[in-house]
Design goal:
It is a single chain. Helices cover 23% and strands 33% of the residues. It is α+β, with helices and mostly antiparallel strands. It has a domain at 73-185: Chondroitinase Ac, Chain A, domain 3 (Sandwich), CATH 2.60.220. The radius of gyration is 31 Å and the shape is globular.
């Protein structure tokens, strides 16, 4: 008994802590209720997401369907004087003044059932727009004009580039200001 008397002040403090820790909802120890969402913000966010999803889905669904397109690749060092690269039936023309320094440019068509081209170095910006020309000779041709679209990922289209559809030749040209991946859509 004598040994328990020695710990009595500590036992009293532990018991007091347990009693205070189990207090009512008005104390700082209780969890706070979740805030109520503002309905006007929810509607705005859902509206934006719906519009974005619709645009991206519509454009991705509108990529031209083709026979299996092979990988065609070519590279060249192009500098301030400009230059051309052909890769399969496709081409890239970089005009004089578009680049400030000599740059190794790679153009590659992507294996798949769409006309798609990837360019590197990714993210390269042009001082003067370059022109990409993509052939859709092996594709199902829609009734309307086709265009070149920018695809930063395999499933996302973020830009429709200013394009000229040469229907009789079955190729489309577009002005581009930067590198990454482009495809043909309608």
């Amino acid at each position: 008994m004598r040994s328990l008397a020695r710990f009595r002040p500590q036992l009293v403090l532990v018991a007091l802590g347990l009693v205070l820790g189990c207090s009512d909802a008005g104390t700082p120890m209780s969890p706070k209720p979740a805030p109520t969402p503002d309905p006007s913000l929810i509607g705005a966010v859902q509206g934006l997401l719906g519009v974005t999803t619709k645009i991206v889905t519509t454009l991705v669904d509108n990529l031209l369907v083709c026979t299996l397109q092979p990988v065609e690749q070519n590279s060249a060092v192009i500098g301030p004087n400009g230059g051309n690269i052909s890769f399969g039936q496709n081409s890239l023309v970089i005009p004089r003044g578009a680049l400030r320094a000599n740059t190794l440019i790679t153009a590659k068509s992507v294996l798949g059932y769409h006309v798609r081209a990837e360019f590197s170095p990714t993210g390269l910006q042009f001082a003067v727009p370059a022109t990409v020309t993509l052939s859709y000779a092996q594709c199902t041709v829609p009734k309307g004009a086709v265009q070149v679209v920018y695809m930063p990922t395999d499933t996302t289209i973020t830009e429709a580039e200013p394009s000229v559809d040469y229907r009789t030749q079955r190729w489309v040209s577009a002005s581009i200001k930067h590198f990454s991946s482009y495809a043909v859509a309608y």
